[in-house]
Amino acid sequence: MIPAKLTLSPAQRECLLNPGFILTKLAVQEKMVALMAALSAQYQASIPESFRGEPWVLTGPKIARGEQYEQLPWVMLDYPRYFTREQVLAIRCFCWWGNYASITLQLSGSYMDRYRPAVEAFWQTAEAKDWYWGVGENAWIHDLNSKAYLPWPAQEDRSQQGWLKIAKKIPLEQWDLLPDWYPAQYRLLMDLLQ
């Protein structure tokens, strides 16, 4: 006898019998990767001359994808990016299946010390209206709907955290806006670093 947990529901059976579902999913993921590749080239071309020697610029862009962030597929671009045990500076573009697209600035170590005043000054402006501030214990949580983030204008004491993150999201229903939305948010974040 087959255990009940191995029996397919009608929806699961329909999915199993429909190769179009998987082919469509793969096509969507390829478009997500293509978007990240286009953004990568655009971002690299727009790096200000004053940043050209920084280690976080010299490390090239990284595009990655996976199937299991909170059990759902994702695609991301990190650029600029610099990750060591003591220091992090990264701008991450993230597309998360069934949820949203987001952009995040993550800092720690000397980069956090260097750029915190600019980020906190930005946080005091109305321009930060749709942004989130990372407040959780784990800097590697990307779910902006979790307790690890507070929306603007949250004023929680973050002085004891060893990292700093701000992020903004856009619904995936607005997919067609992403080619313009990402560069606009990226420019804002790069301006904070100048």
Outline of this structure?
It is built from 5 helices and 7 strands, in the order αααββββαβββα.
Describe this structure in words.
- By secondary structure, the protein is α+β, with helices and mostly antiparallel strands.
- The chain has a domain at 54-138 and 161-192.
- Helix content is 35%, strand content 28%.
- The protein contains five helices and seven strands; from the N terminus they run αααββββαβββα.
- Strands 1-2-3-4-7-5-6 form a seven-stranded antiparallel beta sheet.
- The protein is globular, with a radius of gyration of 19 Å.
Key attributes of the depicted protein:
seven-stranded antiparallel beta sheet; 194 residues; alpha+beta; 7 strands
Uncertain regions spanning at least 5 consecutive residues: none
Mean pLDDT: 91
Biggest sheet record: 7 strands, antiparallel
Shape: globular
Question: How many E strands?
Answer: 7
Provide the fold topology.
Blueprint: H1 10-16, H2 19-45, H3 55-58, E1 62-69, E2 72-83, E3 88-96, E4 100-108, H4 110-123, E5 131-134, E6 149-151, E7 163-171, H5 178-192
Antiparallel strand pairs: 1-2, 2-3, 3-4, 4-7, 5-6, 5-7
